[in-house]
């Protein structure tokens, strides 16, 4: 069980108890750890979480207020990380925790918060491994591999030594997490595995390229597996002992995936909090720079801000995972944060700024291959050097991504300044007003098309797409130009907008774009 006492008992952390809190507080189970420097972190702290802080908020917020916010959120306690600037835990914080009955611990300067998080993850993993580790020798080997930090590669190594099978682990975004025995999957095969994981239930076997049949064992939650263990042999060719070994390995891989996800969840929340700090203007430039550095992003180098959105039903967590994998595979250090409607990335960008748009287009194509049923778009913020102007770049990127996702049928990547002005205006309009506009103008066309099996709406779209050129439109629709003119006259009569004038065509264009915005 993960408790404060369990963490204090780990000598390499050097944690010391300053305020023990009420009886039993140190031995009560804690849910997880949360690192924050916000003056009011209550919106981010989960119940029974242990709060990690360096006290950067002390310059603007009394210790009593910070402790009260933590207490109100149900925090299990506070760990104060010492720094060169604060070599001792502030007396005000000690007194506030004592008054509130909230445990307070002190972390030495030389120990980073990541070490505490890793230790907590190890405690979780060890606790869950114990029942399985006691059952069989193989379980012990799996446990040793994971405990030694070998992760999924270590689990596959145990299987490989015992059964000499070609194995791979693929997550639901198509990322290959580990492989052994010559089972280095192609991108196409990894994508096939990811698509199969999304099926309910996933298939027991997969047909891969080069006439290979693979046995698939879901890893993680039954309803929505997090990954798949693939054995590049048909199930009929596996012995009972091999099948049992693979099934047991899948259970241990689930523990490893869960450990990774626990760490990833903390990183995601840390990233989300950083984005909130940038947008709200709460964090100082120095604090933002330090947090970017924790993600491997050099804050003093040129930075690119990207906002990813989609018109499909792809969960933002899956989109974020695919983005992280794609950026890692391309050697791009990045901080990726998952929002409700988009995913934001702040990346190190050492190439010419003119290359960014083309690079993003290729990235969008890659994401389309891994998320084929959903259209992912990328909004690009103005390039910046350092953290000073990140807020403006971030807002530009998110706005561009939102407009692309809602209005554009043709663009997948754009800066805000690249987008037509009417796209930006429509994205800000009230949906009910847009629906009224669509109904008033396009409704008569659709009624006519339904009653006469006509193609007036298709004709209008083609006419506007071909820059209102009758000749080009007639050729594209395989019509005589006189037939086209008759349709345009009918459109003008039904909509009350003259297709021969700029004003009329603009109204019709806005109606079509509003329809795209309000369509499900």
From TrEMBL:
Domain CdaR GGDEF-like: 287-400
Superkingdom, natural source: Bacteria
Domain Purine catabolism PurC-like per the UniProt entry, residue ranges: 7-120
Record-annotated PucR C-terminal helix-turn-helix domain positions: 458-514
Family per similarity comment: Belongs to the CdaR family.
PANTHER family: CARBOHYDRATE DIACID REGULATOR (PTHR33744), DNA-BINDING TRANSCRIPTIONAL ACTIVATOR ADER (PTHR33744:SF1)
Protein name: Regulatory protein
Annotated organism of origin: Streptomyces sparsogenes DSM 40356
């Amino acid at each position: 069980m993960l408790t404060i006492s369990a963490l204090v008992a780990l000598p390499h952390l050097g944690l010391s108890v300053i305020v023990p809190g009420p009886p039993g507080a140190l031995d009560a189970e804690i849910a997880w750890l949360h690192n924050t420097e916000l003056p009011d972190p209550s919106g981010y702290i989960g119940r029974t979480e242990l709060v990690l802080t360096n006290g950067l908020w002390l310059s603007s917020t009394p210790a009593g207020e910070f402790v009260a916010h933590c207490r109100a959120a149900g925090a299990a306690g506070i760990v104060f990380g010492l720094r060169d600037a604060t070599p001792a835990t502030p007396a005000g914080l000690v007194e506030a925790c004592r008054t509130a009955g909230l445990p307070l611990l002190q972390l030495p300067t030389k120990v980073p918060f990541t070490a505490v998080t890793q230790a907590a993850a190890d405690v979780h993993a060890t606790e869950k491994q114990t029942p399985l580790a006691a059952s069989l020798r193989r379980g012990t080997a799996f446990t040793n591999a994971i405990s030694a930090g070998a992760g999924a590669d270590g689990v596959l190594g145990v299987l490989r030594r015992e059964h000499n099978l070609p194995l791979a682990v693929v997550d639901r975004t198509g990322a290959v997490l580990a492989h052994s025995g010559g089972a280095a999957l192609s991108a196409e095969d990894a994508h096939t595995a990811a698509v199969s994981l999304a099926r309910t239930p996933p298939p027991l076997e997969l047909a891969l390229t080069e006439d290979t049949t693979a046995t698939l064992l879901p890893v993680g939650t039954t309803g929505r597996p997090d990954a798949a263990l693939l054995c590049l042999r048909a199930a009929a060719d596996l012995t009972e002992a091999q099948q049992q070994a693979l099934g047991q390995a899948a259970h241990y891989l689930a523990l490893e995936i869960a450990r990774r996800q626990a760490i990833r969840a903390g990183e995601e929340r840390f990233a989300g909090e950083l984005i909130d700090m940038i947008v709200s203007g709460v964090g100082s430039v120095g604090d933002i720079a330090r947090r970017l550095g924790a993600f491997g992003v050099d804050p003093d180098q040129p930075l690119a801000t990207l906002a990813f959105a989609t018109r499909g039903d792809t969960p933002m967590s899956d989109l974020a995972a695919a983005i992280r994998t794609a950026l890692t595979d391309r050697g791009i250090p990045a901080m990726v944060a998952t929002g409700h409607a988009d995913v934001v990335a702040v990346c190190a960008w050492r190439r010419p700024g003119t290359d960014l748009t083309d690079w993003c287009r290729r990235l969008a194509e890659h994401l389309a291959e891994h998320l084929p049923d959903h259209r992912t778009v990328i909004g690009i913020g103005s390039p910046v050097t350092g953290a000073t102007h990140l807020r403006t770049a971030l807002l530009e990127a998110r706005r561009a991504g939102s407009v692309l996702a809602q209005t554009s049928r043709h663009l997948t990547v754009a800066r805000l300044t690249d987008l037509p002005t009417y796209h930006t205006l429509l994205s800000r309009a009230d949906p009910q007003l847009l629906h009224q506009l669509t109904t008033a103008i396009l409704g008569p066309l659709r009624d006519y098309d339904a009653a006469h099996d006509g193609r007036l709406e298709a004709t209008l779209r083609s006419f506007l797409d071909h820059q209102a050129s009758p000749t080009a439109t007639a050729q594209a629709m395989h019509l005589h130009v006189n037939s086209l003119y008759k349709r345009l006259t009918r459109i003008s009569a039904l909509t009350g907008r003259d297709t021969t004038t700029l004003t009329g065509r603009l109204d019709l264009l806005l109606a079509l774009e509003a329809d795209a915005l309000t369509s499900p």
